[in-house]
Design brief:
Elements (H helix, E strand, L loop, with lengths): L2 H5 L3 E4 L24 H10 L3 E7 L10 H14 L5 E5 L15 H5 L1
Parallel strand pairs: 1-2, 2-3
Length: 113
């Protein structure tokens, strides 16, 4: 194994809103999904290098009753389409005060991914 191979991560996990796509608060509309400049290109480079990619995202709009799980899944599907496909999508639907283990910065989403 050469030095480059040893330093390559097995996977890179990203946040969705404000990292890969424009942040539209509590977005449930796939038509509003806009990739951030350079996001697709960065993901393409990782994929070409054999690095798996995924998304871990807090989506408290579900817990607040502003979004449904189906809304989040439709937005994620549109982002996935525009960004060239990511390997995994996991999100926390809970409110910050719920104290769950999946809400970032806790490790639950990363463990699930």
């Amino acid at each position: 194994m050469n030095r480059t191979q040893a330093a390559r991560p097995a996977a890179v996990l990203f946040d969705r809103d404000g990292t890969l796509v424009e942040d539209v608060p509590y977005n449930g509309d796939p038509d509003l999904v806009r990739p951030l400049p350079g996001a697709r290109q960065a993901l393409d480079l990782l994929r070409a290098a054999g690095v798996r990619t995924g998304v871990v995202s807090n989506q408290s709009g579900v817990g607040r009753g502003l979004l449904t799980d189906a809304d989040v899944q439709r937005v994620n599907a549109r982002a996935d389409e525009l960004l060239g496909g990511l390997g995994t999508w996991v999100y926390c639907p809970h409110l910050p005060e719920d104290g769950c283990d999946c809400r970032k910065p806790r490790p639950g989403l990363v463990t699930e991914a």
